[in-house]
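G., the chain you wanted modeled:
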Amino acid sequence: MSLPIHRPAPKVPQAARVERTTRQAIAQPPAPVLDGCRLALQKIGFPGAPSLGIASSIRGEGRSTVAVASALVLADYGVRTVLMELDFQNPSLASQMGIPSHPGLGEFLQGSASWHEVLYPVSDEFFVLPAGTLKLSHPRALLEVSNRDLLGVLRGRGCSIVADLPPLLGTGIGAQAASLFPDILLVVRAGMVSSATVKEAVSSLPTPPRVLLNGVSSSVPDWARRLAGL
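Predicted structure as tokens:
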């Protein structure tokens, strides 16, 4: 299996080219978020690490914003980066990034779209793979991602991967999606989640994640605050 990730950028479907010309420029995440992502990535060891899943305990903690910011930081370092959307239940990257919502990963897994059609170039070093429209069950789709070793294929083409994962709690597939990634960055929003909630979410992971606090005060465990550098 080969991927068209090289210069010149892969051919974008006509719909994507037309839509991109009519939308405003992509809004940059706030500077504090970008700075926090730079620090977190440095602690994890990027750009050396091949793939990173961005998770949260529940929705509304800023996970998708952190995923976009992390991908932007890597691309700014000159790392060829694919921002992959695995939150099939509540996809939002297409609207954030100013690209079509489909075709995407769902269409690729179902065989109705090629890599050329689902990898949307934002810049020479930054590509977005939206969730698309999925007819498979969500657990089956994640199993297909694993069985086809899509992350390995991307890494084999010299790409780092940043994934917008579903929340670890309340979705039924959060832990399954997180298990695809060797490195997990857990976004914890200040004042929104309790220590018990974070502990419950983390208990589904094989190893403790890195933590990025979205804010500076929150009732999260001491280990989480240490990993966040606080």
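The chain has a mean pLDDT of 82.

Shout if anything looks off.
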